[in-house]
Batch of 2 targets.
Target 1
Amino acid sequence: MDSISIPELPLLASPSSYSIPVLGLGTAVYPFPTSDQISAKEAILSAIKVGYRHFDTAAAYQTEQALGEAIHEAISLGLIKSRDELFVTSKLWCCDTHPHRVLPAIQNTLKNLGLEYLNLYLIHWPVSLKTPSYDFPINKDHLLPMDFKGVWEAMEECQKLGLTQSIGVSNFSCQKIETLLATAKIPPAVNQVEMNPVWQQKKVRELCKRKGIVVTAYSPLGGQGTPWGSNAVMECEVLKQIADAKGKSLAQVCLRWVYEQGVSFVVKSFNKERIKENVEIFDWELSPEEVEKIDQIPQKRGYQAFDFIADQGPYKSPEEFWDGEI
Ligand SMILES: NC(=O)c1ccc[n+]([C@@H]2O[C@H](COP(=O)([O-])OP(=O)(O)OC[C@H]3O[C@@H](n4cnc5c(N)ncnc54)[C@H](OP(=O)(O)O)[C@@H]3O)[C@@H](O)[C@H]2O)c1
């Protein structure tokens, strides 16, 4: 089969004219690390074959190595000519969100991937941990407030050193974006947040649009089967009805809706058929009536971030963590 060409969005905050492919493959499989690194690698190779060029990993997922191996195999198989054809995102884990730990963390990520540079490096969560640990769930006794200014300066340094083309954040509320922007010399190129028809993120999207920050939707299908996700999206009646009427799958309706919102998104599948199904969303569209129906779906954040909330920690409730955006 010919591979599908995936549209891209410009990363306005980046110094050069970089762009992000709107659709990327997620690689978070809980528990971390996935016991099956081989299937992670095979899934990534299948994705490259059908046209995926954007891959999302993180130090915490422990899939950086599988992604790196898949990239090198894709080059040796001739599926791509060089790593430069891909867009690779990784993320700084909470134990490394200390100014002096950012550089060693990205260097370790690059070593795991076997790459010389990332396309995008994100602060995974706006929180820090006292001790080096990539375990999830985290030890809540180790939660600390993050030094926004100092950590972002270290992220800026990573970009200046050429270790990553762009830098960004993840799970940032409007208020946290504003806090970061107040001292940032380089604005974040991306904010990666949970977004799907059941949690549409209108407020964050509006602010990001005004500030030239691209939103990347994670859990676009609701992250079913993960500790941070639920079946709320895949069992949504409104989406089911639209899918049946259109002869598309519910997942495709969902991903098409996310795409039509003008954001990028990362969807995880390690199944060959579903990897292909998820990319077949660029040659049809939702009608204004269908978009209107999706707009009316009652809203509920899937992941409240309870893992990061503790009486002795910097955030004592989901309201505090998300600055009221719940
Ligand atoms: N920044 C963050 O804090 C953060 C948080 C969560 C996730 N993420 C990133 O976002 C990625 C995607 O989010 P996610 O993994 O939470 O959830 P998701 O992509 O919304 O959903 C993944 C689940 O849906 C299934 N699936 C995929 N395509 C399907 C289809 N066409 N039909 C039916 N089921 C389908 C997958 O199973 P199969 O594999 O069996 O197909 C998997 O169980 C992650 O992998 C990760 O890279 C980032």
Target 2
Amino acid sequence: MALKDYEYETSHCIRCSWCKFMPFQQIKSKRFSYLCPSISYLNFHTYSAAGRMHLALALIQGRMTEYSDSLKQAVFECNMCGACQVTCRTWNYNLNPGEVLQELRGHMVEQGQLIPEHMAAIDGLKREDNVFGEPKADRGKWAEGLDFLKDANTEKADVLFHVGCRTSYDEELWPIARTWAKVLNGAGVDLAIAGQNEACCGGRPYEMGYRGEIEKYAEDIAGRVKACGASKIVTLCGDGYGTFKSIYPTLGLDLPCEVQHTTELLEELINNGKVNLKNKVPMKVTYHDPCHLGRKGEPGQKWEGTYERLHPHMIAPVPEKPIKIGVDGCYDPPRNVLKAIPGIELVEMERSREYSWCCGAGGGAWEAFDDFASWTGGERIEEAKSTGAEALVTACGWCERSFMDSVKENGDKIKIYDVIELVDKAMGGS
Ligand code: SF4
Ligand code: SF4
């Protein structure tokens, strides 16, 4: 599909503004009633999904021909969090603003209208197969000394463990990856890693609009799965999960194996009695749904229809397009794991599950608009604090990094954990 194919979606947006807020039925307070970080921060209609739909329509219809800096800012100062895709469904409009935002970015990049700050990630990807441009040779450093892990490059294993760019190169997050590996191995999972040969899933650059190499990365990961004979790929990265579950299948690039998030596998292991959570962890916590694990982790499906002009003023997708409303993301497994820990009291934030507020790290906002990204993360911390929880727990390295930075910057006392860190405490770890 090309941008011109989205005339149906963009011309049917009625500017109702539902894409900016929680659905009325779900709102519990004015303070946390907004759901689109971009419009909340910039407070001008253009910086909403609706505004971007109309920019796209103006480009499609040739009413706008110049790619100004303000157009680039409007397109890219967005978290690509997918909240608008969910809330646009409030009145069953059957549009796909999330898809339009993605296509608009792809179009801009193809026209050479890149955000310079994104180039570092894209150059890093081309050079070292990761979005930080860090040496490829260092990718497996997090696992040094974990000799029980199989080498997916030379050995057969049931499960390929994909750690992702963020955790692989963020030393402060290495203990999280190491604990996941130890817990899964201790429960009898036959686990392999690709170490320095693991590559980016391609999802983050794709969401920046750079879609040139996603096929290469999907083929690379599929090849590695086949080579080690894994029946399953398990990732602790929200971005990786959303890419494997949603972006690849939408592009017809399905992986030749089951895809799980680490919390899904852990929930199974707890239910089968393979992981014993015996120690009490007396703590009131709240859980943050990573966008790409939740609403953007809803399984994707390739649509092979066309938009047909049924009457002079009526265009419709034929056959009907699959509807993505975010409800089939990975929401319950991390919560069920937390509930299985003795002593944990889990409280929900006002915006949760498919109506979760973004951590700020998505869509290249962090790389290019750091004030906006850190404001978004700080807003989530405020919401977590409003529940009275002493800790904010999540299940994605990007969210953890965003929240850890926000707490440090603002001097907040709330603690940030990955699910596995509390599991480790319950299993007798520190
Ligand atoms: S994108 Fe959807 S929710 Fe937003 S203004 Fe348009 S129709 Fe309404
Ligand atoms: S993807 Fe998120 S930040 Fe971007 S317009 Fe939609 S709701 Fe707003």
